[in-house]
Predict the 3D structure of the following.
Amino acid sequence: MLRSSYVLPLATAASGKNRKRNRMLDSSFVAWCYYLLGAAGLFVFWWRLTRDITMAKLQRSLRAAAAALLVCPFSIGDGYADMAPAILMVAMETVFEGTDSFFRGGPTLLGSVALAIVAALLWDEYLVRRNRQDMVQAQLDRDRDELLAQSE
């Protein structure tokens, strides 16, 4: 027969799991999920808006900048572990605290945008070099085949 002292710790452990699960659903995790879902929708809109740009470097740079603006996180304040989207933090602080507060989150946001643009330009350069290398290799193969055909 089980004594009640054995049942009580099991019941509190189960309720502790439920509290932890409820706390997770009420946390910033759900807010970030909703935000990222909305950001994905905005990014799809931006992708379709920039699809008619014929300059590949500009197109990729604009898309990278938009992605960095949408997903860059920033701390909500000193002593807090939670993060919020930097674009929202900068906008809210600039509106409610004045333009001087831009310098709290603005450099982080601008740095991430600059990093994304540099990464997009490096990726574009890699693609150009790879395509050029493929074209040179194809020309060498054609020349070799032509020489082999002539020698026969």
User: Anything to note?
Assistant: Residues 1-14 have pLDDT under 50 and may be disordered. Residues 4-151 form one domain. The radius of gyration is 27 Å.
